[in-house]
Amino acid sequence: MAGLTEISYYGRKGITYGAIIMVILMLIPITLRISKQIYLKLNPPPPPPPTTEYGKLPLLKFPQVEGVTPNTKPIYKLETITGGLPQLPGVGKVYVVGINKSRLLELERVKTRVRFLKFHDEPERLSENVFRFANSSPPTELIADMVSGKFSYKLDFVSDPANFLPVSLPTVDQAASELKGFLGSMQSLSEDLANGIVKGKYLIATESGEMVESPSYSEANMVRIDLFRADKDKMAFVNGGGKTSTVNALFSGVGDKLARIVSINFAYSQIVGEDFATYPLKSVDQAWSELTQGKAYISKNISSVTVRRVSLAYYESDDLQAFVQPVFVFEGDEDFFAYVQAVDPKYLEESK
After folding, report:
1. Mean pLDDT lowest for which of 22-31, 47-56, 200-209?
2. Options 1.10.287, 2.60.40, 3.30.310, 3.40.50; CATH of 100-270
3. Per the UniProt record, which residue ranges are transmembrane (predicted)?
4. In angstroms, rounded to a whole number, what is the distance separating the alpha carbons of residues 194 and 65?
5. What strand order describes the sheet that includes 151-155?
6. Which of 169, 293, 324, 328 might form a disulfide with 340, Cβ 3.0–4.6 angstroms?
């Protein structure tokens, strides 16, 4: 018969071995999980095949650049941080853009929204979808597209000398806040604009209407604001203006907040929900080849340029577009940039 000492000894052993077994059992799922993560990192599963559910996509329409013709073919030199072209995804997302289907209903909505701008008369119809609101005092106009939602507001600022006095010129932050307030009143302030990037610069306007950039706030009598959409899928939105946005405004130094709005331009592709389709993309080498062959949208007529950065972005057009699509972006010296439509040509409509 075992003594108490022996029972105590084996009891302690049992507890020790039991604890070891419990620790091992606890470590097994953790070890398996870590091993799986390491394996998947070293051997990632292939991405799901592109859905291409929107069928063939339209060719992107880029604006015409003064001095640039189909024969404009700069000499390109590639000098990126890595020394070559980057590795970029082979599949990209495409989003549907919403439009206003009821022109008459939208017109009534716009009439209500622009009352704060003191537009009370019936608008002039410029085309099937575009209407012009006008005032004589102050001399302002607003041209709005009832289908795309695009609009431009303009004050004839040269007619009043007070517009050139920087008495109450807002700072960039103040002007950005006032622009967002204006867009809110027009029910055009989306979340990605509200949380987007603001760029501003101070200008000196002359009585002839010409403007040059001011070296400082104290010497300026105008401030320009460009409001960019927040990134989507870790990709920026770009447009034909490059460093300017399709949503922008100009403010004078007049004290009254409404009276100091010189101009506001708004062109915005409203993405419908979060639904998207995926499409195969060209390789970055193919995009580079198209750039060097003159098959890209380029920002200026230049004889040669060094490209410093290559990336993917979403293209935002000034004009109505059915889809938001990705483009390859090539950025270089002297503020040069170029775009190449990124979707594989097999999934694009033929040019008309």
Report:
1. 22-31
2. 3.30.310
3. 14-32
4. 30
5. 124-125, 130-135, 140-145, 151-155, 261-266, 247-252, 222-228, 197-205, 211-213
6. 328
